[in-house]
Amino acid sequence: MHELPLLIFTLLVQGSVGMAVFLTLSARAASRIPEVKHQLLPGMLLACVVGGLGLMVSTLHLGYPLNAFNALRHVASSWLSREIVFASVYLAALGLCTLVMMVKKQLIPLLLPLAAVLGLIDVWCMSAIYAHTSVITWSHFNTWLMFYGAVGVLGAVAVAWLPILKARSMARDRQAVMRFAAVVVVSIVAIRLLAQPDYMAYLASASLSGIVTLPHQPLESFTQLSGLRLFSWTLSVLGALLFAVGAWRQGKSGMVFGSLLLVLSEVLFRFIFFSIN
Fold it and tell me: Is the Coiled coil keyword given for this protein (predicted)?
């Protein structure tokens, strides 16, 4: 699969942004007890590393990595240029916030939320790159749902296993964050499912119109992967239910299996997304 670097890149960056969003929510709860703020550092470091790795992997798709600098010439007209710019400033803001936390043990109040917002804008640009192509299976709002859905799902899974708000005095706050994460995951899966009839109708109408995208045959590939799509949706729904039950009842086994199924389903969804040949 020649799109493997893009699969890894998009999932890693979206996972990083998801972590930044949930870390921002956790930071609000931790602000009441200063000594708990240092617990945010492992998550911030992980978000930086994951996002940085994703950005490095993305250059492998270019064949000649130094060509990445050429993509910055058309920020006013190119979604790719905008995506590179916002990915860079997102990682810069998150990296600076993490560095200050490491050195001074302080959290700059507005920098982490700013990084999260920049990351969300970057995901919008990333989605627009594919939605504005001539590939039929990408040119639909379902692309935004899948990309932003990955942000929410991967961010929720990450925050479930990061050592955040672990102090006894923060038990209620952590439970509130985890329950919110469960609601986010279930809502994402439900919204994605509700969008599928419209997406399938769009693909059916595109097929009847005789639109051909060369050298790719996305509709044919999409049809061939129907079994894998059904399997992926099954994993996603089951994972969301297990994750939600585990988060709500603080059950470890439900969280473990739910998290694994959710991550696997996101990988499969992205594999299907890029399987257009």
Answer: no
